[in-house]
Every structure is written in structure tokens, then in C-alpha cells.
Design a protein that fits this description.
It is a single chain. This protein is mostly helical. The protein has 3 helices and no strands. The chain has helices at 2-73, 77-164, 167-179. Helix 1 (2-73) runs antiparallel to helix 2.
């Protein structure tokens, strides 16, 4: 009985170590998912900043076009030339910002896919951990039932010895205790 209990304790310890490893693996997946989520939030902020810059350019260019027309109509060609240069610079800047926006959106989509994958991995890890925990508890319960059964047989044997009071019954009871 004592040997069985010792073996059960070793099995329980090994199972507990395995469950801790599963939990650590699940924690790593959750941390990775959290990090990716933070990166995605930064990317969203970058996208919003680029959009804001594009809106400023989109409102500024028509205004400059109007100023250019007024400068040309008043024959202020030097001012018109400066305005044309500013419009050109804003248009080039707009093209660069649009490229950055597309890159940021692509990065954000990639991060979203990675996050979904990590969340799926985390869910699978949680399910595996829960299943492993259930299995471990069921095995532990089965081992405890075996030990209980052995103890009950031992108790019956000892009760038999006490009622008979003979040495042969005592040897028989001891044999039952050793066989379990």
C-alpha cells in the first residue's frame, strides 16, 4: 500500500510539472498576443496620423489653387510661382504619405492576422490544459480508489484476525496487505 501511495505521489508530481509547463506555454502565447496587440495599436495610431496629414494636404491644396488664381489675376507672378512650388511640394508629400498609409495598413493587417493566429493558439493551449487537468484529476481519482480498495481489504483482513484470534488468519491478513 505504501509503495503504491509513493508511486502515486511521484505520478502526481510529474503530472503537476507537466501541467505547469502547459500553463507556462499558454502564458507565453498570451504574452506574444498582447505584444502584437500593442504593436497593432501603434500601427493604428500611425495610420490615423497619416490620414490626418493627408486631410490637411487635401484641404490646403484647393486653398492654394485659389490663391494662385488670385495672384495670376493680379499679375503677381512671383507669388504665383511660390504657390505653385508649394502645391507641387504638397502633392509630392501627399504621394509619399499615401504610400506610407498603404504600408501601415498592410502592416496592420499582418499584425491582425498574427493576433488572430496567436489567439487561436492560446485558445487551443487553454483547451489542452483543461483537458490535461481533467485527465489528471480522473487518473488521480482512479489511483485513490485503488488505494482505498487496498486499505478496505487490509481493514477487513485485520478485522478477520481480531475476530478469529488465530495466527494463520493473521498471516493471511498480512499476505493480503503485502499483495496490494
Amino acid at each position: 500500500i505504501f509503495e503504491t501511495q509513493r508511486q502515486n505521489a511521484e505520478i502526481d508530481s510529474a503530472t503537476a510539472d507537466e501541467l505547469r509547463k502547459f500553463q507556462q506555454d499558454a502564458d507565453v502565447v498570451l504574452q506574444a498576443s498582447s505584444l502584437l496587440e500593442h504593436q497593432r495599436e501603434e500601427c493604428e495610431a500611425k495610420v490615423e496620423e497619416i490620414r490626418s496629414s493627408l486631410e490637411v494636404i487635401n484641404t490646403r491644396v484647393p486653398s492654394l489653387e485659389g490663391e494662385k488664381k488670385r495672384a495670376v489675376s493680379s499679375r503677381n507672378f512671383k507669388a504665383a510661382k511660390n504657390i505653385v512650388a508649394e502645391i507641387k511640394a504638397l502633392t509630392e508629400s501627399k504621394s509619399g504619405l499615401e504610400e506610407q498609409l498603404e504600408q501601415a495598413r498592410a502592416e496592420m493587417n499582418l499584425l491582425s492576422e498574427k493576433i488572430a493566429s496567436k489567439e487561436s493558439d492560446a485558445e487551443k493551449a487553454k483547451e489542452n490544459l483543461a483537458q490535461k487537468l481533467r485527465t489528471s484529476r480522473e487518473e488521480q481519482l482512479a489511483r485513490a480508489r485503488v488505494v482505498r480498495s487496498m486499505l478496505v481489504r487490509c481493514k477487513r483482513g485485520l478485522e478477520k484476525v481480531q475476530s478469529k484470534g488465530s495466527s494463520s488468519a493473521a498471516l493471511e491478513a498480512l499476505g493480503m496487505a503485502d499483495s496490494g
